Write the structure tokens for this entry.
Amino acid sequence: MEPIRTLRSRTVVLAVNDIDTDQIIPARFLTTTTREGLGRHLFADWRFGPEGAPRADFVLNQPQSSGCSILVAGHNFGCGSSREHAPWALTDFGLRAVVSTQIADIFRNNALKNGLLPVIVEPDTHRWLLEHSGAEVTIDLEARSLTLPTGETARFPLEPFARYCLMNGVDELGFLLGREAEIAAYEARRAQA
Amino acid sequence: MSAPLTLFEKVWRNHEVVPESAETPAVLYIDLHLIHEVTSPQAFTVLRERGLRLRRPERTFATMDHSTPTRTEQVFGGAPISVEAAARQVRELERNCAQFGVELLGLRDARRGIVHIIGPELGLTQPGKTIVCGDSHTSTHGALGALAFGIGTTEVGHVFATQCLLQRKPRTLALNVHGKLPAGVGAKDLVLAVIGQIGVSGGTGHVIEYRGETIRALDMDERMTVCNMSIEAGARAGMIAPDQTTFRYLAGRPRAPQGEAWEAALEAWRQLPSDPGARFDREIDIDAAALEPMVTYGTNPGMVMPIGGTIPERSGDAVFAKSLAYMGFAPGERIREHPVNVVFVGSCTNGRLSDLRTAASVLRGRKVASGVHMLVVPGSQQVKREAEAEGLDRIFIEAGAEWRESGCSMCLGMNGDLVPKGHYAVSTSNRNFEGRQGIGARTLLASPLTAAACAVRGRITDPRELL
Ligand code: SF4
């Protein structure tokens, strides 16, 4: 995985609460056996009309969204299923961070493993971001901070190990494989009990 | 004496390979890894790319359920699976399991079914185990006192290669339920009411332990319905302390311990319930005696009300308004008596034998209202056989419902079992998200009893009218 330290981008705002994984990528696209190319199905039922034509009124289809890599979403983003296809679709589309006041547990875990930053901010910062679509913001992993164009900075929580992995491009599987001795010892202990 | 511990803390502690520290999450050992065709292929690919094997193939168990057909001719008759991409996933799972030495219940296996139904049914699910699956409703298995939660595909790969996961310890939430559930009100109504109260993100970061005499009085099927929907409140897992009900349920199941091993297991399982005085991070009390049959009216399970209620008004809430517009409802509206097009009885929430019995008890000697399409899909092939042995299939078919082979089916519509656009479906499944059951489908979640009553009358019906 590519190390990530900072991210600077304009935002795209989707002010809907409880955006669930079935909206992010509907189940009919889960019949794939690879993880590539899912960006074209991102928010499929919101992005496209019944005949498959892009809906002009959906924000991701609008010209100002092109090139934005930070999504600001309503409260409780990513609830629902454990499908990792959701972060795969978001990153394949070009998004690198999701900002909300709450992000569902499994989605957050999955996002972190795919270099998609889950950024949880306080309601005040969130409100500002919702009202200023397209604002250029900077996310700094080292400082765990999000800086608004006003110069105001908000801190966000990030599990230290996940942050370490993101910043250094470390993959967790490698780390776990490195725990072989402890795992074997645990299994031996259990076998005796 | 050591400090009193909760059920969750005991199971967690027993599985710490390396405890968590400020810098690193715990390395948690996984006893049982359940996999299915939809969330496993990319994890097998990672193993192949990195030249890895499964560390403990005997702790991994595979079934196929999400995208599989429910039409008998496609399962057993040699007719092609209608969704071609689903057929590919099925073949890929067969190939992966064969190559990596994983036990698989294939499409025609008599023990196949929805992953969360067959785990308990086969006795694979046991108290005190850590259980994971690439599926959020893995929380179901917590009904037997296991710590069970959903994971993503990258983590499926971690468990394959190391039998472990990196996990931060979640917080605990005690949900104390007291009082007797009134007639016509079941486990599904109880859990919908809980989600209505705490909200769809109310349990985020927590493991819920359901406690109190109401929970103790539930049978295993009902307990599984409750734990199943923990994830709909945002909780990672739901747990219920094992007791005589649990032990009776497990005794003699094919994968449960037998003989001396059974006695030893019982001894260990009896140590698991939360100690008196154990502390939870949060506690919530629910009065079961005050509950009514529940139904959802919006596009998440927290948008729920008693079936005779009126949809709340939330002026200025554009998201709420959008959700109601999708459903074709208005604030202040009553939905009782609203026409229904589709009724689905099934899923890992309510696809067990007792659910089918409940639905059949309403349909016996009655007909599905004309114009209503009712689909009954048993949660596993074993549930199907048991239901047929009791003649439940005849009751459904004579009433005008369809009776299918087991699978997830219309719960998420991957296999082509879909609710048409704009249609109202009363469903015993767990998610009423936009488009979950088909593009433009309008899902109303309810209990099997309520669903059957709605099928008979062709309208949203309080099941107590038909008792
Ligand atoms: S029945 Fe529905 S909720 Fe349960 S595992 Fe299948 S798709 Fe998921």
About this structure: The radius of gyration of chain B is 21 Å. Residues 293-465 of chain B form a domain with the Aconitase; domain 3 fold (CATH 3.30.499.10). Chain B has a mean pLDDT of 97. The CA atoms of residues 63 and 115 of chain B lie 6 Å apart.
